[in-house]
């Protein structure tokens, strides 16, 4: 008799819940944030409904939806993280070069890539690999590499269970529960640095994120993000809950038809740190709270227009870290993005965004897709954007890494090196959305007898 395995989606749900509980205990304001987001989502659903909020049929996933972010130091760590997330049915999707925004990492997002897996539990982890090659000081670069070479960020039990899952093709319930507990240890916060104070401060001066990756026992989860249905309401209500939001919401402006991803956060904690040599205790700033609102996924054409408009905005104004030009930035962003259609029919007909098709309430008399939609025989709902935006991610990172000086970095994307470290190719997110759109259309047309 074949073994009965816990499904990857169930393991993912268990892990996401355990991670949320751990982070709530470590960062109390996360609990406050969760309560605020839950209240706002309930208000939005009651006032306008899920469809108008761009979340048709997603009510059950909204409350449990999270994304986390981690940063690893070596190719070996990244390759094992890929195997760890693979046990949970999460695969690398997309390549993100953050060096373009002065952050010395490149990244991918581990997430389910199939529609059913996303519906069951859409947990994602944005995972960044340190670019040691971008540290200009060779002595410092070698010192960082030496520190990273001596650490092991996975428990022996976790590694054994990853191997068992790969050999067996899954994990039984008892092993799945043990796996979740063992894997959680990789992401726990440790206030004791693995380096002496002198090296910590040298790395931090080079770039705070380098110190965050190199100087601790593992890749502590640095934020865990709930999804809201109206990020502007959350942004304005955060101060009343004792939370200080960053000045500007990253991503597109407020729209009737949300696109891609909008993100905001509260400022990072300054947490006490002790050093290996007993040097003077310091503080480390890394972990923060983040909130996101997700809109419709854009096609290559739509994404090109988005990037062009965002570049146009940034030529005029870049958000200041202290928020001093926040109003001017929001005004410029809104003005420039008037050029981006804000109507689902226009977005669909102009090929700017992806939609999921289903059979409507009216009879089908033939005709093309637009005629079937106009007749009510076919309905189109926006496909949610499940991924990330490099400029937005960098903006969140930068706003929470402190204002100290850091070395300038040259933009240098290197997807081939990242995939070599990963031990796999990353999936193309646009291809996944296009496939989901086409599959839904094929199924709907077949049901209408028009295939």
From TrEMBL:
EC number: 1.13.11.93
Pfam families: HGLS
Entry-linked InterPro entries: HGLS, YdcJ_bac-like
Gene3D superfamilies the record matches: Uncharacterised protein PF07063, DUF1338
The protein's enzyme class: oxidoreductase
Molecular-function GO terms, alphabetical: dioxygenase activity
Keyword annotations of the record: Dioxygenase, Iron, Oxidoreductase
Cofactor: Fe(2+)
PANTHER family per the UniProt record, alphabetical: 2-OXOADIPATE DIOXYGENASE_DECARBOXYLASE, PTHR39479
Family recorded in the similarity comment: Belongs to the 2-oxoadipate dioxygenase/decarboxylase family.
The protein's name in its UniProt record: 2-oxoadipate dioxygenase/decarboxylase
């Amino acid at each position: 008799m074949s073994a009965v395995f816990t499904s990857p989606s169930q393991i993912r749900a268990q892990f996401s819940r355990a991670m949320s509980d751990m982070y709530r205990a470590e960062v109390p304001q996360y609990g406050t944030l969760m309560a605020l987001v839950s209240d706002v989502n309930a208000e939005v659903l009651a006032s306008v409904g899920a469809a108008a909020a761009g979340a048709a049929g997603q009510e059950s996933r909204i409350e449990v939806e999270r994304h986390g972010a981690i940063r690893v130091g070596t190719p070996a760590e990244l390759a094992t993280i890929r195997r760890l997330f693979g046990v949970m049915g999460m695969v690398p999707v997309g390549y993100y070069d953050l060096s373009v925004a002065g952050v010395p990492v490149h990244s991918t997002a581990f997430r389910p890539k199939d529609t059913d897996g996303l519906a069951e539990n859409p947990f994602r982890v944005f995972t960044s690999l340190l670019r040691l090659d971008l540290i200009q000081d060779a002595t410092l670069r070698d010192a960082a590499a030496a520190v990273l070479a001596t650490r092991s960020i996975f428990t022996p039990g976790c590694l054994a269970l990853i191997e068992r899952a790969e050999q067996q093709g899954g994990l039984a319930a008892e092993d799945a529960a043990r796996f979740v507990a063992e894997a959680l240890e990789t992401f726990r916060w440790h206030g004791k640095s693995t380096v002496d104070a002198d090296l910590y401060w040298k790395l931090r001066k080079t770039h705070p994120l380098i110190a965050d990756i190199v100087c601790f026992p593992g890749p502590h989860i640095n934020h865990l993000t709930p999804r809201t249905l109206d990020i502007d309401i959350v942004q304005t209500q955060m101060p009343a809950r004792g939370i200080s939001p960053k000045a500007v919401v990253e991503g597109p402006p407020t729209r009737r038809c949300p696109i891609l991803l909008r993100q905001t956060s509260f400022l990072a904690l300054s947490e006490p740190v002790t050093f290996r040599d007993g040097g003077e205790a310091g503080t480390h700033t890394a972990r923060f709270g983040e909130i996101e609102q997700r809109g419709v996924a854009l096609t290559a054409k739509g994404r090109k227009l988005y990037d062009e408009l965002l570049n146009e905005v940034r030529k005029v104004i870049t958000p200041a870290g202290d928020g001093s030009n926040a109003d001017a930035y929001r005004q410029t962003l809104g003005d420039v993005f008037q050029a981006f259609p804000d109507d689902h029919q226009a977005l669909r007909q102009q090929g700017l965004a992806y939609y999921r098709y289903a059979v409507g309430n009216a009879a089908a008399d033939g005709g093309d897709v637009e005629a079937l939609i106009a007749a009510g025989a076919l309905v189109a709902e926006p496909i949610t954007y499940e991924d990330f935006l490099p400029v937005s991610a960098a903006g969140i990172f930068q706003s929470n890494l402190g204002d100290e000086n850091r070395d300038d970095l040259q933009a240098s994307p290197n997807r081939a090196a990242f995939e070599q470290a990963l031990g796999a190719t990353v999936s193309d997110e646009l291809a996944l959305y296009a496939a989901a759109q086409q599959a839904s259309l094929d199924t709907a047309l077949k049901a209408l007898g028009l295939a």
